Amino acid sequence: MNFNPALIVPELYQFLLIMALFVQSLGSREWQPHTERWMPIFAGLGFMVSMVSFGSEGLMFWGAYKVDLISQFFKVAVAGGFFVAVVNASRQPSLAEAKRADYYMFLALSAWGLMLLSSAVELITIYVALELSSYSLYAVIPLRSKDKGAAEAALKYILFGAMATAVALYGFSYILASQHTTYVAELAAKSWAWADSPLAVVGLSMFLAGMFYKLALFPFHFWCPDVYQGASNETAAYVATLPKLGAVVVLVRLAALLKPGLEVTTILAVLGAVSMTYGNLAALAQKDVKRLLGFSSVAHAGYVMVGLVAGTAMGLAAAAFYSMAYVVMNLLCFWVLGRVGSDGRNISLDDLKGLHKKAPGLALSLAVGAFALVGLPPTVGFIGKFFLITAAWNHGYNWLVITLAVNSAIAIFYYLSLVRYAYAEEGEASNAVVPDNSMFSVAGAGILAALVLVLGLIPAPIFDFAVQAGKILLP
Amino acid sequence: MDVGYPVLTCLIFFPLAAAAGLFLIRGEAVVRGYTMAVSIFELILAVPLIWFKLDSQFQFVERVSWVPQWGLEYYLGVDGISILMVMLTLVILPLCVMCSWTYISKRVKEFHFCLLFMTAACVGVFTALDLVLFYVFWEAMLIPMYLLIAVWGGDERRYASIKFFLYTLAGSTLLLVAIVAFRIAGGTFSIPELMQQSFSFRFQFWAFLAMALAFAIKVPMFPFHTWLPAAHVQAPSAGSVILAAVLLKMGTYGFLRFCLPLTPAASQYFAPMMIAISIVSILYGGWVALGQEDIKKLVAYSSVAHMGFVTLGIFLFTLRGVEGALFQMLNHGIVTGALFMMVGCVYERSHSREIKNNMGMGKYLPAFMGFWGLFALSSFGFPGTNSFVGEILVFVATFEVNAWLGAFLVPGALLAAAYMFRVSMKMAWGEPSAAKNWKDLNSREWAYCVVPAVFVLVIGLAPGYVFKMIDPSIDKLLADFKGRSQVQRVETETPMRTAALDLFAGDASAKN
Minimal CA–CA distance to B254: which of B183, B161, B168, B336? Predict the structure, then answer.
């Protein structure tokens, strides 16, 4: 077994973190170092570790586990996102004191699954890593004290997840039956045209359903708004962001199979178009901000497809970059939501009224986040969308690009209403929320907002990594 | 001309830096004074623009790589077409600060933040020579304008601000796709370099439509004009002034900067349609303005008509026409901006924009009515004022092209005189309602009325210098245009069908 621990330092670190949390969760109730205090520090350290091991490359476990630029890019993104999610969750009011260690353990486990997923280049490995990250989330979502909605959300998530998994496994059996291999590199050499191997095309489409479920792509999105709404703000912040990275990395790896013009690629493009249009239209009617962001996720899942179907290194780079941008923008929005609803409640649009007065810093950050999600310059949302459009134009799916552009015009209405309620609407909400105006809350929002702006103004360094990574897969 | 500092960059980033500085200071009076000082300093920064060389080259060029992977550049420069717009933007800023001195009483700091942000974005739009950079500024400007209307607007501000945002954003989404398509077909985002290339007619056809939609909404041209009266009426004075003086110009600037040089054959192909829409805008805008009871709405509809003259002049493709259009852009900015400031000025006294509540001021507010009269005369192109120069050029150009076409303009000009006389007459000599107790202009109001009045007369009586600035660029624009639209007059067979096929087949052969 060709195993080299030096290559998988981030995963090992994360695993040790999980073990530590596991030990603490077993420990007696009297002996409780405050998890929410030490966890952010160690998660931050994990981010550093993932950065340090950025350049490493290698193939392990008989070719099933590949450490390359693309996996390291996503590991850095996952570790960074995990760090922010942990910091965000460190002031979670709706989490019982006794369950903190378990909560963080499951979060860490899920992030670990995503890290493994970003290196997996073999279908069974992909499947196992995907399930690892999903199962932990099933346990985390209902952890919202005194809220039955959270249990309902968890149930929906499990049922949908189980269904999507079943479909994916079934599709996997077809792929194996017709292509006789499970290694992505070998699969890429086979033909995926309907005329040559219809069984494999059906199988691949079904296998992709597992990813679509994670990504909340239409028609596997039904859980998304409900789960965001039911889960606590902090949990939703995690569920809305990192798992999408995992789905995108698998899709990016499988993109070697998805040449433009193939039936399965066209399915992806059509689902992308439907997803963005449906997500944006449905979001127009939402009053609960988390539901609104849920449908916005559905739309954004569609946007990512634009880069994936282009079939070029630039397209993959754009998709990877956009998924990272999406994570940053959503972490920002959920950060603000968590702080505005400082008692752990769900925030409706009405609750945002007068936010500019009560919490100017949070209001400004929310505005930055909302305009970034629309794709207005000079934010990372704009530059990401611009990369997508540029990469995909003239690669056979121009109608998809135009759908993407037109969707921005639909989306502006509901994102703008976030800003409108925060800035322009007069009057107070009936049961007024008390935003958290502490240094911690405003500084966190400010840093994330600055990140959104800086990545939008100077995207070149990060994008360079994405392009190099994309060139590995599609030279 | 090297002046030791990057002029255009400073003009864009100084207001932004100053806007950030607003958060450090306290007190309303201090904020107003600070912004005023900033706007004056911004004008001083712009002094080197006086040494603009009178030729067609892009000047004050700054070019730095931005995102090398995609060939994005930070590329600025001005030529005869844009320099006037930059100057207009800069002159408007201190006037806006002055006319909101007492008009704006809530959230003063944020208001001035929006003004400064707005100025930076507008200067950026007029100076950007990289398509994506242009788009960045073009979109960035929406946010402060939205806030100006949504926060400091009138009673219907919610409706008006959302309508403004939706219309303009919807128009510009396809502009981004067009920009990307230019890059794929032409290999660069640099506007001067793209101007050297020729594209297939099918490509031009779609690119023109995508760009024209964005610009036509911004201008606004007839079927897309409905956001304008709503936005103008609800916006605070300063917002209306910027909207009228600067924002609307971006649409026509876009036509001149992008449609004519980049898609000449398609511009030629669509010219009859654009001319027809322009004439409809002139007649319809004038006709509707005649029926308004709200002074601000009247001025807003008059804008639709005036901008119709501009687009008409552009799509005649003659020297006189484009000269007239550019002149009209400048003049409309000065005059309509001034009229909106005066409406704001009287609104502070009467708290109403209805004509019937603002009558009979001739006796009690002579200075106010004097300025109003001057701007009103200029608005309908009275000889000796600045608008006359632009309008007469468009007239002449239209008659040169086709006398029948010109015949449509005569009622347009008559309507302009009619609605302006109607409102001015009532305001000056109508039955006074409460005007007896109002004070005439104070010194601050004098200041912001005198500045545009000076421009009205100077440009009206001595337009020669302006011609010298704009002519070389217009000559070059039209020479390029004529040369390149002729080459391309071949593929006229069913462009619609071939273009549609092209789009859905995803054909990569957009370039000739």
Answer: B168
Please, is B290 exposed, middle or buried when counting C-beta atoms within 10 Å of its C-beta (0-12, 13-18, 19+)?
Answer: middle
Residue A113: pLDDT band with limits 50, 70, 90 = very high
> What's the pLDDT at B505?
52
Greatest CA separation for chain A: 67
Return the pLDDT at B511.
38
Angle at B184 between CA B178 and CA B189, to 5 degrees: 70
Tokens, residue B84: 């006037």
- Residue B508's alpha-carbon distances to A262, A393, B348, B497, in angstroms, are 18, 9, 59, 17
Strand partners, A59: A66
For residue A377, what is the nearest residue in chain B, using CA coordinates?
B136
> Under DSSP, is residue B73 helix (H, G, I), strand (E, B) or coil?
strand
Instruction: Give which of B190, B55, B88 is closest to B473, Cα–Cα.
Output: B55
Check residue A429 and give its pLDDT.
60
- Provide the 3-class DSSP secondary structure of residue A120: strand
Q: Among B73, B176, B227, B511, which would you mutate to test the A interface (most chain A Cβ atoms within 10 Å of its Cβ)?
A: B176
| Cα Rg, chain A, nearest whole Å | 21
Tell me what ipTM this predicted complex has: 0.86
**Tokens 């660029």 sit at which residue?**
B473
Nearest-angstrom CA–CA distance, B221 and B254 = 13
Task: Record the tokens describing residue A128, joined without a space.
Answer: 């196992």
**What is the rounded CA–CA span in Å between residue A425 and residue A417?**
10
List the one residue out of A421, A379, A396, A114 whose CA is nearest residue A238.
A114
- Split into its structural domains, chain A has a count of 1
DSSP B141-199: THHHHHHHHHHH--TTHHHHHHHHHHHHHHHHHHHHHHHHHHHHHHS--BHHHHTT--B
Contact list in B for residue A459 (CB cut-off 8 A) is 67
User: With pLDDT > 70 as the criterion, what percentage of chain B qualifies?
Assistant: 94
The two tokens of residue A189 are 């050499």
Given this model, what pLDDT does residue A346 score?
83
- Number of A to B CB contacts under 8 A, please give it: 96
Q: Which long-range contacts (CB under 8 A, 24 or more apart) does A169-172 make?
A: A169/A127, A170/A206, A171/A202, A171/A203, A171/A204, A171/A205, A171/A206, A171/A207, A171/A208, A171/A209, A172/A123, A172/A124, A172/A127, A172/A203, A172/A206, A172/A207
pLDDT band for position B125 (cuts 50, 70, 90): very high
| Cα Rg, chain B, nearest whole Å | 22
Q: Where are the domains of chain B?
A: 7-493
Whether A387 has its CB under 8 Å from any CB of chain B: the answer is yes
pLDDT in tens, A183-225: 888 888 787 777 788 888 888 888 888 888 888 888 888 888 8
Contact present, A59 and A98 (Cβ < 8 Å): no
For the record, the structure tokens of B395 come out as: 């007239």
- Nearest residue to A271 via CA among A307, A302, A308: A302
Question: Beta A65-67 vs B59-67: how paired, if at all?
Answer: unpaired
Cα gap B374→B307, rounded to integer Å: 20
Q: Is the pLDDT of residue B489 over 80?
A: no
- Which amino acid makes up residue B333? G
A370: pLDDT confidence band, cut at 50, 70 and 90? very high
In this complex, which of B157, B174, B508 lies closest to A405 when CB atoms are compared? B174
Arithmetic mean of pLDDT over chain B = 85
Region B467-482 average pLDDT: 85
Whether the pLDDT of residue A439 is over 80: the answer is yes
Nearest to A460 among B67, B150, B151 (CB): B67
**A119: containing domain:** 5-473
Residues recorded for chain B? 512
Q: What is the spatial distance between Cα B176 and Cα A381, in angstroms, rounded to a whole number?
A: 14
